[in-house]
Model the fold of this input.
Amino acid sequence: MFMKNSLKLNWKIISGCGLSIILAGVAVVSMSFSRSANEEAPAVPVRVSVAEPVAGISGLRYSANITPRRQVDLAFKVGGYVSEITSLPGPDGITRDVRAGDRVKQGMILAHLDVKDYAVRASQARASLEEARASLAMARKDYERNQSLVKGGYVAKSDFDRKQESLDVASARVDVARAQLDQANNQLADSVLKSPLDGVVVNRFVERGSLVASGTRAFVLVDLSAVKAVFGVPDSLLSSIKLGETLSVVVDALNHREFKGVVTAVSPSADSKSRVFDVEVTIQNSDRILKDGMIATVHVEGGNEPDHLPAQSTEQPFVGITSVPLQSVVRPPDAPKGYMVFVIAEKNGRWYAQARRVELGDVVGRSVKVLQGIAPGERVITAGATIVHDGAMLSIVP
Done:
């Protein structure tokens, strides 16, 4: 009996100790979770800029792309092995195969194919034509001789008709042989690739010894004697663009050098995605200083901002035309076709990120107009805009 009571007492003591340990563990875990919940995420270091008000200006500025007046993809009409590529002296004076950046003249030979097979085909076609011509001459003489005999009744009319038929067949064979010779000569001529314009080589896709098929692209050539500045305008400003008028085009990469161009084309239909109309401004480029792919700014006189702004929505309480750096504009996570800017807001002595949906206007240099969503004077995040989120705590660095 005493042994049983001792065992019961020991079990109670052990059970009590175990429960105390478990409760203590739960308390420790609870305290750990409590500390984790109270800990705040580290502040994200960002740089900020002030949204500047856009003063009234005369006209509008649009971002444009510089493109060549003419671009040609030069391809082989026939197939074969590339036996030769034209050589030119390089900047170091050493002769090398023509390559990107080299200037070429109209009619200049750029590459040759191995012409052995085409030369043989041309010779065979020439021999076939001579044979067909000899057969035609014999058929014509036979026809003329039987023509006089049929009149005297010495040859039956049916025999003479067969002579006529033989003459027609021989004449047709001459035509076929002549066409085959022309085709062979054309293939022989097409084995030589010539430049169709005075321009610059942008790309070369073949090497000596390359096996090419008919239609293989070999060179890309551009004519840079004149270039086009292409930009898009909304339908509300089409009336400000006139064919033949002169516009100012500024290229930042050339120390903001200004060029004068003439409006040579206005698209009759808007782009299906951006809903803007493409405008083409042609600029003379005799010194070839303007290159394909450069970015320019086109100034359109008389194209002032609309008198009214877009309707204000409840999600965008701040309305005004401001200018912010391009790097401050990001895509909203739930609207990949929209735009968003992070402004900074202060709370309890700390800075936090606040997401704003915005409506953008024209690009001016390295800034973009914000038609709606940002008020002048607000501070927007520039460096770090892609790594913060709405409500993130910030650390502003100079």
